[in-house]
Design a protein that fits this description.
The protein is α+β, with helices and mostly antiparallel strands. The protein has helices spanning about 65-75, 95-110, and strands at about 10, 25-35, 40, 45-50, 90-95. Strands 1, 2, 3, 4 and 5 form a 5-stranded mixed β-sheet that branches. Strand 2 and strand 3 form a beta hairpin.
């Protein structure tokens, strides 16, 4: 069972962006299978098209390990509040093909 959001996508770019809620041209390269409060909450990882630093990556396996670790840390801690156990975990990291499958399923869920 999911968290009710259509989909969460983190776009890797060397550009400074002031905030979210932007429309950009990006390519999915993988994702994290996440559990957040006992609900599925996958995070898709994408790269901004033509980005100087990240635009050449085709699969999350090509991204430097330190970048993946920093993303994992962010997604595991960005909702942290003192004294609150959120039961958040990343159970798997997946590549390009699985990311596209997750996106297709999310679109199907959204259209229902």
């Amino acid at each position: 069972k999911g968290d009710g959001d259509p989909i969460d996508i983190c776009v890797l770019t060397e550009k400074d962006l002031a905030h979210g809620d932007l429309l950009v041209t990006a390519r999915p390269i993988g994702g994290f299978r996440m559990i957040d409060g006992n609900q599925a909450d996958d995070k898709i990882i994408a790269v901004l098209n033509n980005d100087t630093v990240y635009g050449h990556f085709k699969d999350v396996s090509e991204v430097p390990e330190i970048v993946i670790r920093r993303l994992e840390h962010y997604f595991l801690t960005y909702k942290d509040m003192p004294g609150v156990d959120l039961n958040t975990e990343i159970t798997a990291t997946y590549g390009f093909e699985e990311a596209h499958k997750v996106i297709r399923l999310s679109v199907e869920d959204y259209n229902e």
